[in-house]
């Protein structure tokens, strides 16, 4: 029987958060809540829903392979050119595409741990070597990551805010890192949660788009825009970097429905503001209630909380039986999405039990 290369066999398949339907089917329960996958509990923009309905009649046709209108709208919003935008089937596809484009067997990529597991998977899938640098105070240790760059390094991955801890890197430390990154290394800034950030000292990745440095900034419509089920994300980089990535990008990689929904969502500022407000209120509530229970947590700039706790898998399984889905992050931490008020209250009540 044919077998893949050894480096492929070394990849553990990604395990997503447990779906509500699966839990209720397995346990014979109902009215479950999911706080496992950092989705927007507010749901999608009403404008996006209208756009989705209006696009149904066109699904017999292939999508616009260039994503012209969505790219144009993003370019205008971000003050860049259309050629500096690339669309992806979620920003996850763009992580894979960047690795396929710029790494070869034996090349190194520097990343933090724990962070988004797909970085490691993307590097491993092309035979690259991941150099994993432990977090410091639950945050990317950019100084240590800079020291880890060698002549074999071709990429540096940074999640800002970090998933799963919700922490951010700030301007000065990011600028210090960028000064040390060689000109033949691509920095991939994963900013999936950047719309939730309230800290004014948040690192400014966009300023490097006009510098000599190589940077790819990834953002998504899956989080604050509430379109996780449609899989649409985007990247921002110099046109030369994206031209190379487009050599390997699959044809029609974002659907008609996804493009039209994202375009509508992009202009609904009221929906984004409400999503931020719901998240901020939920964060304050969880901070207060967890503190009252004597449970420590990592302050977050995203839409989830990282809670260090021994026996995380046992806790996860106990909460499942109460119809509350969270995410174990190894043996000694869980990650909990900030939900609607009633979902947050239910999580706290389940913890008390």
UniProtKB/TrEMBL annotation:
Record bears the keyword Cell inner membrane: no
Catalyzed chemical reaction(s): L-histidinol phosphate + 2-oxoglutarate = 3-(imidazol-4-yl)-2-oxopropyl phosphate + L-glutamate
SUPFAM superfamilies noted in UniProt: PLP-dependent transferases
Residues in Aminotransferase class I/classII large domain copies: 32-351
N6-(pyridoxal phosphate)lysine: residues bearing it: 223
Any one GO molecular function term: pyridoxal phosphate binding
E.C. designation(s): 2.6.1.9
Pathway: Amino-acid biosynthesis; L-histidine biosynthesis; L-histidine from 5-phospho-alpha-D-ribose 1-diphosphate: step 7/9
Pfam families attached to this UniProt entry: Aminotran_1_2
PANTHER family: HISTIDINOL-PHOSPHATE AMINOTRANSFERASE, HISTIDINOL-PHOSPHATE AMINOTRANSFERASE 2
Name of the protein this chain belongs to: Histidinol-phosphate aminotransferase
Organism: Candidatus Sulfobium mesophilum
Name of the encoding gene: hisC
């Amino acid at each position: 029987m044919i077998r893949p290369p050894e480096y492929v066999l070394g990849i553990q398949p990604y395990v997503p958060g447990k779906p509500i339907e699966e839990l209720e089917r397995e346990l014979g329960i109902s009215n479950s809540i999911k706080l496992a996958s950092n989705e927007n509990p507010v749901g999608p923009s009403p404008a996006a829903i209208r756009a989705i309905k209006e696009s149904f009649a066109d699904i017999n046709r292939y999508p616009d392979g260039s994503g012209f209108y969505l790219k144009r709208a993003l370019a205008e919003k971000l003050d860049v050119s259309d050629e500096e935008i690339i669309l992806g089937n979620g920003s996850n596809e763009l992580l894979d595409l960047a690795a396929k484009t710029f790494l070869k067997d034996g090349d190194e990529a520097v990343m933090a741990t724990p962070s988004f597991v797909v970085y490691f998977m993307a590097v491993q899938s092309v035979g690259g070597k991941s150099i994993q640098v432990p977090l410091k105070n639950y945050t990317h240790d950019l100084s240590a990551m800079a020291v880890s760059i060698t002549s074999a390094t071709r990429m540096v991955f940074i999640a800002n805010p970090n998933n799963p801890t919700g922490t951010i890197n700030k301007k000065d430390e990011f600028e210090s890192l960028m000064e040390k990154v060689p000109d033949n290394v691509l920095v991939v800034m994963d900013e999936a949660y950047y719309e939730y950030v309230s800290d004014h000292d948040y690192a400014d990745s966009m300023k490097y788009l006009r510098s000599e440095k190589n940077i790819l900034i990834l953002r998504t419509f899956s989080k604050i825009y509430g379109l996780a089920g449609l899989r649409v994300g985007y990247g921002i980089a110099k046109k030369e970097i994206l031209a190379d990535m487009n050599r390997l990008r699959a044809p029609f990689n974002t659907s008609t429905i996804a493009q039209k929904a994202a375009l509508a969502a992009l202009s609904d500022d009221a929906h984004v503001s409400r999503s931020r407000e719901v998240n901020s209120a939920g964060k304050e509530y969880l901070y207060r209630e967890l503190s009252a229970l004597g449970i420590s947590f990592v302050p977050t700039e995203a839409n989830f909380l990282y809670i260090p706790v021994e026996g995380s898998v046992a806790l996860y399984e106990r909460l499942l039986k109460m119809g509350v889905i969270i995410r174990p992050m190894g043996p000694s931490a869980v990650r909990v999405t900030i939900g609607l008020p009633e979902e947050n209250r239910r999580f706290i009540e389940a913890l008390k039990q």
